[in-house]
Amino acid sequence: MIPVMTGILLGARMQQKDIVGLAYIGDGGSSTGAFTKGMNFAAVQKLPLIVIVESNHYAYSTPTSMQTAVRNMAERAAAFGIPGYIVDGNDVVACYEVTKQAVDYARSGRGTVLIEAKTYRRKGHAEHDDQRYIPEGEVEYWEKHNDPIDRFEKFLLDQKIADKESSRRSQRT
After folding, report:
1. What is the mean pLDDT of each run of 10 residues along the chain (173 residues)?
2. How far is CA 100 from the centre of its chain?
3. Strands 62-63 and 84-88
4. Where are the beta strands (DSSP E) in 56-122?
5. Strand 84-88 vs strand 21-26: parallel, antiparallel, or unpaired?
6. Active-site residues: which are they?
7. Helix extents (H) in 91-147
8. How much is the pTM?
C-alpha cells in the first residue's frame, strides 16, 4: 500500500492538489521490500505521506523481537531521513495529536513522517489464527489493563465531556 500511496501523492502534486496521504501497515509488513522502497521514494520526493505502523508485538505469529533488530519501529525513519514518532496506540487522544502534528508537517511541504503506534492485537491475525503462539494470559492482561475504549471513556468522563448516564445510554444502543 505504501508504493500505491506514493503514486497517488505524486499524481496529486503534478495536478497541483493539496492533499496528505495516510497509510497504515503492521509491524510485520514494515519488513518488506515494498515498504522500504515506498518509504524511500516518498522521503526522497518529500511527498506528504504519513505512515502509521501498528506495532502490535507480532508479525502474524512471529514476535517483533524476532523479525527486526530495532527496538522501536520509529527508529527506521532515520534510514529515510524523515521524522519518526512513537505514540501509545491505545490512547485515542495521543494518536489524534501526533497524527495532526505529522499532517501539519507534511502539509507544510517538509515531506513524509513515520508514526509507530504501540498497541496490541487481541484477536488473531486472521480467522484461522488460533493464537497458540501467544503466552497464556497475555490477551486478557491487555484487555483488562489497556483497552483503548475503556481509556477513552475514562478520558471523556475525567474531562467532563461525558457523564456516566450518557455513557450508559450509548452502550444500550
Report:
1. 95 97 92 93 98 87 82 94 97 97 97 95 76 80 84 87 74 61
2. 13
3. unpaired
4. 58-59, 62-63, 84-88, 113-118
5. unpaired
6. 121, 125, 133
7. 92-105, 138-145
8. 0.85
DSSP 109: I
Name which of 127, 123, 130, 150 is nearest 57 in CA terms. 123
| CB-based contacts of 102, cutoff 8 Å, min separation 6 | 50, 83, 85, 113, 115
Please give the distance of CA 126 from its chain centroid, rounded to a whole number.
19
Q: How far is CA 153 from CA 111, 148, 171, in A?
A: 34, 9, 11
Cell of 53: 505502523
| β-bridge partners, 88 | 118
The answer to whether 54 and 89 are in contact (CB under 8 A) is: yes
pLDDT attached to residue 4:
95
Which residues have a Cβ under 8 Å from the Cβ of 18 and sit 6 or more positions away? 12, 107
Q: How far are the Cα atoms of 56, 62, 131, 164, 169 from residue 125, in angstroms, in the given order?
A: 11, 11, 8, 34, 32
Q: Which DSSP state fits 61?
A: T
